[in-house]
Every structure is written in structure tokens, then in C-alpha cells.
Amino acid sequence: MYWPAPSLFSSSALAVAAASLIAPAEAGYTLQTLYQGESFFEGWTFWGNRDNLTNGAVYYVGANEAARQTVAYTNPAGNVILKADNSSKLATGALRNSVRITTQAAYDIGSLFVMDAYHVPYGCAVWPAFWTHARSWPSGGEQDIFEGVNLASTNQAALHTVVGCTVAGTTTNVTQSGTLTFNDCDYSVAANHGCTYTDARNQSYGQPFGDAGGGIFVAETSSNAISMWFFPRANIPADLRTVNGTPDPSSWGLPWAYYPSSSCNINQYFAPQQITLNIALCGDWAGQPGVFSPSCGTGTCANYVVDPSNFDNAYFEIASVRVYGGGVNTRGSTSSAAGVIGGLGAK
Ligand SMILES: *[C@@H]1O[C@H](CO)[C@@H](O)[C@H](O)[C@H]1NC(C)=O
Ligand SMILES: *[C@@H]1O[C@H](CO)[C@@H](O)[C@H](O)[C@H]1NC(C)=O
Ligand SMILES: *[C@@H]1O[C@H](CO)[C@@H](O)[C@H](O)[C@H]1NC(C)=O
Ligand SMILES: *[C@@H]1O[C@H](CO)[C@@H](O)[C@H](O)[C@H]1NC(C)=O
């Protein structure tokens, strides 16, 4: 199946016509799709089921208006709130309402994915992510741009692919500022661990993120490399401060996570990507005793889920999600079998 330039069919998402009017001598990024404010949700599909992929103790609500008012809505400031329910006391083992939404559009190599947020979910049992994945998984790849669990102090990035995509370099601060923690992206290795980096900055996750006024997460998905940057609010480059700027990653300094095509052929391993935002509770990562206990101490993850007051910080406050197009894509249009999303979870 051929994917034409995505998002242009979305009535809600603002497709920016200006992008096609001028052909600059040197290709650069221009805004392709903006998800923001009151129309944010129109370009996304709500999961409408329990977490049947990563076994979280959540029910991901459907798109009905009542559910939206509870856990997914645009606040008076014009920012989008996605949250786990923090008002219902539950019986042990019951599922807490939460959100998992995915863009209807899929964006090919040559895209720059951006999330501008003021707050990210955190707390014991909480497992949020901002990530992308192909319609066919794992053959079309997955990139996790923002992900945290429990009281982890920093953000983690990951790629998940089929066999053959790795990260060759292990040297921090030469090609990236983050720390490489696992170098094999193959989903079938180490229980779908993925090739991971951790950011060195506490401001990349949890309370310190919000205390610093939030910030911007970026993934550049090009044929040459997948590169990720994080900018606390005070350090956001001018070309990202407004949504309709012309971002120039070459001016941003080292990415914190870097996956060069020399050890992972991006053209081969990455099909067009849909964007997903979700907040799981417990489940396959956050709920593992070996992951839960080190930051959250004694007690089980499941016991946390019953008490709503544990989830007052389990919310995203998002100023915008943006996709810029115009980056390097040497593969050209992609063809691939129409895929079903199955066995798919950020991790
Ligand atoms: C999981 O839930 C989604 C959304 O309802 C559904 O489309 C999919 O078939 C389910 N997958 C499995 C493995 O049950
Ligand atoms: C980052 O957070 C960890 C865990 O909370 C803490 O031990 C460390 O001191 C913090 N680092 C800085 C620079 O604040
Ligand atoms: C990178 O790290 C090494 C070892 O910690 C250090 O000697 C070097 O100065 C660092 N380089 C830069 C550019 O920060
Ligand atoms: C839920 O969390 C929000 C955000 O932290 C807070 O304003 C609100 O008071 C909480 N709700 C309840 C019922 O505690």
C-alpha cells in the first residue's frame, strides 16, 4: 500500500499550504501538521479498550464526549490534557480510566516529530509515552521519543525493529549527549527491550520537567539517522519556539539519542509512522517488581491503582504536537503490506 503525503485528508489538523508555495534552494523543514487546542483530538483515534497490548491496569476510553470531559480535553489555557482518572476509588484489580490516542495519519521518513508540553505524567505505577510506530509492527519500526516509569529520574528513548538494526557506537558525548543503555533494537531480543538511551537531565522527566516550565521533545526521522533532542523551556531554540518556524536541527548541537543509518538502515526498518500518546499504569514495564520497587519501595504496583490520589500528577499538559516535513528521505515513497497493529506497546 502506498501512503500519500499524510494528514492532508484530516479536516482537523491544520495542513499548512505555505509549505508548497516556495521551493527553497536547500530543502528544509516546514510545518506539515499541527495538532493543537480545540481541534487537537480530531486527528486522533481513541483506543476504546483495556490495555490489551502491555497489560496495564487501565481502560483506555473511547472518543465519546463524556469520557473526553473526564480524561481527555482542552483546558481553558488552550492546552490539551490527557490523564489517568484521579477521582475514582477502585476495587482491587479494577481498571482505571486513562487515555491512549493515535494519529490517523502516518508520517514517512523525512519528518520531524515535536511535542511541546508543560507537564508529563509521573508517579508510582505511572507509565507514559509519546512515541511513533508503523501501521505494521514490528516490520515498520517504532520510535519512543518520550517514556518514563514510576519515579524514574530521566527520560528514556528507544527504537524497536525487526532483527538487524543496532547502535554501533557506545561513546557518550561524541555523537550524542545521552547514555546508550542497550544497543540491539530487535524486538525479539531481551523481551522487546529495544535499543535505549537515557537522558542525563532530570528536567527530561517527572516533577523537574514541570518545574522547569516543561519543554520540547523532538525526533528527526531521516534516511541518515534517527536523532532526538530535548529542550527544557528556557533552552528552546528560536526556530522551534513558534509552530510555523523552519526548524534547523543542524543548529541545535548534539542530540541526546542518536541512531545512525550506518548500523541501522532507516530506509529499510522504518515505514511511515503514526504518533501515539498514552498513559499506562503498571503493566509489562512499570508493574514489574524489579522496576517498581527500586523507585517506589515496598508494596505492589496493583495496590497503587485503587487510590485515585496517587494519580494527581498522572497527566500530560500539551501545548502542541507538530510534524514538520521536508527532511531527508532517500527511499522515496514506501510500499508495504497493509498492517494490523498487534503486539504493540511502547516499552
Ligand atoms: C486490542 O484492542 C484494540 C482496540 O479495541 C483492537 O482493535 C485489537 O484487536 C485488540 N487486540 C488484541 C490482541 O486483542
Ligand atoms: C536527579 O534525580 C535523582 C533522583 O531523584 C537525584 O538522586 C539526583 O540528585 C538528581 N540530580 C540532579 C542534578 O538534581
Ligand atoms: C567527553 O567525555 C570525556 C570523558 O568523560 C571528556 O574527557 C571530554 O572532555 C568530553 N568531551 C566533550 C566535548 O564534552
Ligand atoms: C486530580 O489532579 C488534578 C491535577 O493535579 C488536580 O487539580 C485535581 O484536584 C485532582 N482531583 C482530585 C479529585 O483530587
Quick summary:
This is GH16 domain-containing protein. Residues 1-27 form the signal peptide. This protein has 347 residues and is mainly beta.
Secondary-structure blueprint of this entry?
Blueprint: E1 14-15, E2 30-35, E3 44-46, E4 49-50, E5 58-60, H1 65-71, E6 72-74, E7 80-83, E8 96-98, E9 100-103, E10 111-119, E11 126-134, E12 142-147, E13 156-160, E14 179-182, E15 195-198, H2 206-211, E16 215-221, E17 225-232, H3 238-241, E18 257-260, H4 266-269, E19 273-281, H5 283-286, H6 289-296, H7 301-305, E20 315-325
Parallel strand pairs: 5-8
Antiparallel strand pairs: 1-2, 2-20, 3-9, 4-5, 6-7, 7-20, 9-19, 10-16, 10-20, 11-12, 11-19, 12-13, 13-15, 14-15, 16-17, 17-18
The structure holds 2-acetamido-2-deoxy-beta-D-glucopyranose (4 copies).
CATH architecture: Sandwich
User: What is the global morphology?
Assistant: globular
Tally of domains: 1
Distance between the termini: 28 Å
Return the structural class.
Answer: mainly beta
Number of helices: 7
According to CATH, the fold-level topology is: Jelly Rolls
Count of β-strands: 20
The string of secondary-structure elements, in order, is: EEEEEHEEEEEEEEEEHEEHEHEHHHE
Largest sheet: 9 strands, antiparallel
Q: Proportion of β residues?
A: 25-35%
Rounded Rg: 19 Å
Helical fraction? 10-25%
Low-confidence stretches: 1-25, 335-347
CATH class: Mainly Beta
